Amino acid sequence: MNEQNSNVMILIVEDEMAIAEGLIDICELNGYKVKHVIDGETALIEALSGKYGLVLLDLMLPGLDGFTVCDRIREKDKDLPIIILSAKNSDNDIIDGLKYGADDYIAKPFSVPMLLARIEAVLRRSRHSLEGDGKLIAGNLRIHFREYMGTRGNEELVFTRKEIEILEYLWNNRDHAVPRAELLKKVWGYENAESVDTRTVDIHITKLRKKIEDDPSHPKLLVTFRGEGYQFRASPE
Ligand code: CA
User: Fold this and answer.
1) Contact 2, 26 (CB under 8 A)
2) Tell me: the pLDDT tens digits for 12-50?
3) Cα-to-centroid distance, 12 and ligand 1 (Å)
4) Which of 109, 140, 187, 213 gets the most CB atoms within 10 Å of its CB?
5) CATH top class, domain 135-232
6) Cα–chain-centroid distance for residue 69?
7) Quick check: 169 and 229 in contact, CB under 8 A?
8) Is the distance from CB of 63 to CB of 37 less than 8 angstroms?
9) Rounded to an integer, what distance in angstroms lies between the CA atom of residue 123 and that of residue 126?
């Protein structure tokens, strides 16, 4: 079992139970965490929650079809790895899947080693495409961005993908104030961040403080900047 996989949560979107069960087994046996949903609407909500490192997406689904789900994910999240899994395997379907922003396309029936190899390849590319040296060290806090993990003193920390993206952005701009609108644009991909509820940012920051701050109600690392934004303070006052 690959140890690194254990921090990656895969969203499996598949309405045929027999296939879904097979996928769940394959993923879990290889160390991935898994969540399974059966329809397009739920898939979209889950996919945009920031919890997942990869989506395995069937095309023929009740409600929204896989192409639409893929397209809507890409409107909000440019980087979430998506592999389409489908019995539709004409060239046009494959071209459509890639056009809608999927990272790869696997035709059913597929072999287990091939599926795993494709998952690993897509995850590897996704890890490499993220910026920075992949590490945050401040005081007793150590975070490995690529592994979604860290430690605060002796305590082990596990992060969601969205939390890591926020931390990595603030870390790369450390000791500078980052307005909420900038985070919404850079981390969430909203072009018109002014029209988006900024509490989304605050909720994530609150969760992050509970993980990384010694005293979350008196943050020393993730500080609020004049009510407008946040700053990662690398050098203590
Ligand atoms: Ca289906």
Assistant:
1) no
2) 999 999 999 999 999 999 999 999 999 999 999 999 988
3) 12
4) 187
5) mainly alpha
6) 16
7) no
8) no
9) 5
